[in-house]
Fold this protein.
Amino acid sequence: VAMLRLIYLSIYNLFGILGWSHILIQLIQLVSGGNHSLVWKELGTEIKYVQTAAVLEILHALLGFVRSPISRTLPQVASRLAIVWFAMDPLYTLADVKNASQPFAIDYHYWVGIMTITAWCFAEIIRYIFYGLNSIDPKLVPSPLLYLRYSAFIVLYPIGVSGEILTAWSTMPLLQAGKCASLGGLLAACPANGPSLLWLFLFCYLPGLPFLYLSMLGERKKRLFPPPAPKLAGVVFPLTKNGDRSTTAAAKDVFAAAAAAVDEKAAEAVRREKNWRFGYTRHVVRNLELCAKSPEAAVKVARAGLARLYETFDLVRPDGSSVKLGEALRASKGSFETHTIRGTRARPVRPEVKVPYRCYHTGEFKELSGLALEEQVDKWVARGTIEPDCGEAIKEVVRHPEWTDLSGKHFVLLGATSAMGPFLLLKELGANIIAVDIDRPAVWKRIIEAVQDSSATVTFPMRAKFAGQSGDELYKLCGCNLMNEVPEIRNWVQATVPAVCGGKAVTIGGYAYLDGELHVRVNLACDAVIQGLVESYGAAKVRIASLCTPTDAYLIPKAASDAARANLARAPLWQRALQALVGPLGRLVPNTLPPIKADDGTELHLMDGLVVAQGPNYAMAKRLQQWRAIVARAEGCTVSINIAPATATASVVHNKQFAAAYGGMHVFRPMEIFYQEVSNAVMGALLIYDLSSPTSAANPSVALETPAMLFSRNAFHGGAMRCLYKFTSIGEAAALVHYLAAYGPAVAVAGASVAVAAIGRYAL
């Protein structure tokens, strides 16, 4: 699918280059020959065809073929089409209003049109050449072309827009006379509305032009004058033979090492992969299949992958020196000071999990607890939004209020204030928290003030010994940098846990999140701390906690796979029709994969929820967490690692395209998007269940078909497992549904107004 998309986009970009180049050459010939008044007669058809083809760019943005935001693509294309069909076409083809034997256009109009078309030609030729090369390989884009792409608009946009406005304004006499007959007389049907529509169109340029222009200036600054890359420090990708720290080379090396533990052919396929950026997903799925062969295979794959990470990744010290991560962890002796703060509130008499449930689709709000929470859980299970065992787990927590008294439980939170972490729930339930987070005063102000207003305790690292500091003086001494100071943090955690927990069990969770390659680095840092605690404190007393994403590949229950097939069979007609249209383009892909067989003949079912756009770094970071879970559980650790649903965190819905996709997701049953507060509460409840129930799959004594089945147990997947289409292939269609729901009524009203005006005219 990725290759077909590349071929299609290459053909489209080539069409744009040739089309606008042809128009520009012909335009120059006509003008230089003194035939400027013949420009539209000779080139009008070509201009209409080439410009109208740009409608496909709206689909490209909606379908995710390109990264251009729809908020910028739609107004650009729409305004151009309006100028070509409703302004230029009638302006240069209709007769004068007062003298039908003379053309309406005069010399001024022709020169304005030439100015406009010339600006379009240069802008589009540059743009399509850039896009054509960039879609194949960004390295193919030469520096002069990059500069032109993000600089030429500074001159071309004002020229082009000025020409568009002047051209549109020039049609006013035609509209007033009811003679604007473009597109089969659409506007001629309601001449009284023509001038008003023109005024409305011109008014849209007031906010539209500054928005587009400032947007492009922002892109220019980002592309041509990026901020200097921060100095490498802490956990970093390994150096290659070329002297760079390629994330692709490192990922291929790690996945190949993991696969080679059980299947050399699979490892060789990873090494031979030429297009890792877009081809990595099949190797991630293959890694899962190798883990599914047998319990022994799963542990071998996981151990080999983890070992390769520690053997190859480096730790760069502040002085610039570099040493292999594994060696650095063994050699480091540094640490931090420690301080503990206790909350001032009394312990709740009857602590319980409460879910502040606001339906993402309807906006209806209910605070759920007790029987009301159980009833809502049953609804989610019946709909297929969560798995039945997940529903039973949450209800067990409701029925055992003693489980929610965490006053005697201890938790180490790496990335304590992460959006999806359990910090807020744990402090409300009176837990003893050992918090590790970035050394920023604002972060620690939030942590400390939250704990002070609770019955919990928080123990944290400090850069200087506590000497009665408070307020800002205290906050600026708190915290550390997980990625840069991982050996010292590891030492501090290993020393602090026995002192605080006194030999009792402790739960350690890695919740830190960063974008791109930083996500791999910070996850490896978290893993180093977790691994160190398991080794020093003992697997039997260490419980590991983490969260899985629905956008990954998993072994899933047969019932979930069957439900996806059943949902596909009874898909609404409109979804089937849309799937027939966009399915070949990799959208609305059926969420059904053929089962695989383990070495003992057991039939296992797969879900491939990987998102190519998220990139191989994200996939490797999540694989690291899963490998650690498999190894730790085999060593005797309790491991709570549950799939969380798609969540409308602030960082996600800040992107308008993601927000639109989330807004329409509910039409693809049984999908449901959840607000962050809901996800925090339900995932916290599942964590409590895993730590409290002896029958939880988190318990290493509970038998599993294969270790990789751990990740689909108690899955609060938001419908991803049972959705008729792959969750990762419905985003564009969901966004379209959202836009139609949001703007469809306005379009319908406008259309009805035009229709009524037309009927009234002809009736008279």
